[in-house]
Amino acid sequence: MYAFVLERMREAGMKAAIVSTGADNAHAPAKRAYEKVGFSGPVPSVEYHIKL
Question: What is the model's pLDDT at position 13?
Answer without folding.
Answer: 97
